[in-house]
Q: What sequence folds into this?
């Protein structure tokens, strides 16, 4: 007998429909899986056989062929277990065919028949809504994510009540679908725009670096990339880890984007943990280019995508492989990553705020320090890790020195809550002026010049600074964007001379 069941395969952070076709007929007992399965899918033969037998069903010892269509789409991961098992049960007439009619299923099976969550429950449920399916059957821990997709669809068009989420704990509960004993739909987490302050480090702990505090505020207000260059102990890492506490809360569309990425990239993440704060990713400097921006076979998201709508912190920038750093040039500019392989192209979102910290030389003390023992060639090689093309894409480049002892012994500075209020107000001015949720850092060249509204004095100062600092065309525009953000923080409609002067001062690597 032939049976078909719908499921999904992940392509980056989105889901694509897959039809599982199972043919059970007399012949030598075999179970073959075709349709470009990877090793994890091929190994499902043993998991499915044991799960069926340990769930009170009878595994058909006949010739079984499983086809995953479309055959030219690579299938990866253990999330196809439940679809294969349910199709075998229908084909062997142990489940009625109508149970899985207009239904999608996804989940990993344990040997005892217990269902484990599969990556991507949220994008799978969104795709099921788009395709007009009647039901999606998934593992119980993934239920809230799938229910969220249904709720958002109802809020959008009011016509998605036909999709029912059925969370199961065990394979034998398939027989309960459509009966009075069917498990109740889960209550999905509602989109939240509130931020939990207790879990975030506070900026008040940063002492003795007023210029760095100001740079953090400007970076948060306009979404500007920040590079900090200074000796160890100057507060670079401490400051970067407090930047998320200055950012405004995620809007509901942004929260959905973040949760969709987290769902597709980690099956065991806590959906509620993604509600209250923006992502903060701090990969180790040994990371590969594919790990940083995405890649592999099949292509998967990297740290840049996991930091979408949040902060990507690269500590000890000089220790990163240059190939990994250069791979960030296009994502910083465009806000997305295109991974192209022979048979497919995947676009991954990566609109992040990049923060990097570097020492001035390999020993960290700087060439001007009498204790620096680095030879000039070592310093040049160390500095060459950050190419001029990548540095030019960072809006704020700040040189730092060691904080004064008196400042370190002083009282704590302004708390994150006060700074965040100014940041939120500045972003609201940007939203009103631009008519959308973009920040100043996302403006195009023509938009930058139109939105800046320079005074005569500010225009003359920018021209002088362009010549003096030998800015590139991109650097000129980035100075304008930073100046526009400073004006927004000062509640000014036009960008004045003082705003341009401060923006120009924030493009240097040397400390004062």
A:
């Amino acid at each position: 007998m032939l049976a078909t069941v719908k499921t999904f395969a992940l392509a980056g952070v989105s889901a694509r429909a897959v039809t599982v076709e199972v043919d059970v007929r007399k012949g030598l007992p075999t179970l073959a899986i075709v349709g470009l399965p990877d090793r994890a899918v091929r190994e499902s033969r043993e998991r499915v056989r044991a799960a069926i037998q340990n769930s009170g069903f009878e595994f058909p010892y006949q010739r079984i062929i499983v086809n995953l269509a479309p055959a030219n789409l690579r299938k990866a991961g253990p999330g196809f277990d439940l679809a294969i098992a349910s199709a075998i049960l229908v084909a062997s007439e142990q489940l009625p065919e109508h149970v899985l009619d207009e239904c999608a299923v996804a989940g990993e099976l344990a040997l005892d028949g217990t269902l484990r969550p599969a990556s991507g429950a949220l994008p799978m449920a969104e795709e099921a809504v788009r395709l007009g399916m009647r039901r999606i059957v998934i593992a119980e821990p993934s239920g809230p994510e799938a229910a969220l997709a249904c709720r958002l669809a109802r809020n959008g068009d009011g016509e998605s009540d036909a999709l029912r989420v059925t969370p199961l704990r065990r394979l034998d509960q398939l027989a309960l679908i459509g009966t009075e004993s069917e498990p109740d739909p889960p209550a999905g987490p509602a989109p939240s725009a509130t931020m939990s302050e207790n879990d975030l480090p506070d900026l008040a702990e940063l002492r003795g670096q007023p210029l760095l505090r100001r740079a953090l505020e400007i970076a948060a207000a306009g979404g500007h990339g920040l590079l900090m260059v200074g000796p160890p102990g100057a507060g670079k890492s401490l400051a970067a880890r407090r930047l998320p506490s200055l950012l405004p809360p995620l809007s509901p569309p942004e929260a959905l984007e973040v949760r969709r990425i987290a769902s597709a990239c980690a099956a065991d993440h806590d959906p509620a943990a993604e509600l209250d704060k923006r992502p903060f990713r701090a990969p180790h400097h040994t990371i590969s280019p594919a790990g940083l921006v995405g890649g592999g076979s099949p292509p998967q998201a990297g740290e840049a995508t996991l930091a979408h709508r949040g902060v990507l912190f690269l500590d000890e920038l000089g220790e990163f492989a240059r190939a990994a750093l250069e791979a960030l040039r296009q994502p910083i500019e465009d806000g997305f990553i295109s991974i192209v392989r022979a048979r497919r192209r995947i676009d991954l979102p990566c609109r992040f705020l990049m923060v990097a910290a570097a020492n001035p030389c390999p020993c960290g003390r700087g060439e001007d320090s009498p204790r620096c023992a680095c030879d000039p060639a070592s310093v040049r090689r160390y500095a060459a890790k950050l190419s001029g093309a990548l540095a030019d894409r960072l809006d704020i480049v700040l040189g730092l020195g060691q904080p004064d002892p008196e400042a370190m012994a002083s009282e704590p500075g302004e708390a994150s809550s006060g700074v965040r209020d100014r940041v939120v107000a500045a972003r609201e001015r940007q939203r009103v002026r631009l008519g959308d949720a973009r920040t100043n850092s996302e403006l195009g060249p023509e938009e930058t010049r139109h939105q800046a509204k320079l005074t005569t004095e500010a225009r003359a100062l920018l021209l002088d600074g362009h010549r003096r600092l030998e800015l590139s065309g991109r650097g000129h525009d980035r100075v304008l964007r930073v100046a526009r953000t400073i004006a927004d923080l000062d509640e000014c409609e036009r960008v004045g001379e003082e705003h341009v002067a401060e923006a120009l001062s924030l493009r240097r690597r040397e400390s004062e």
User: Anything to note?
Assistant: Confidence is low (pLDDT under 50) at residues 191-195. The longest strand covers residues 14-25. Residues 416-434 form the longest helix (19 residues).
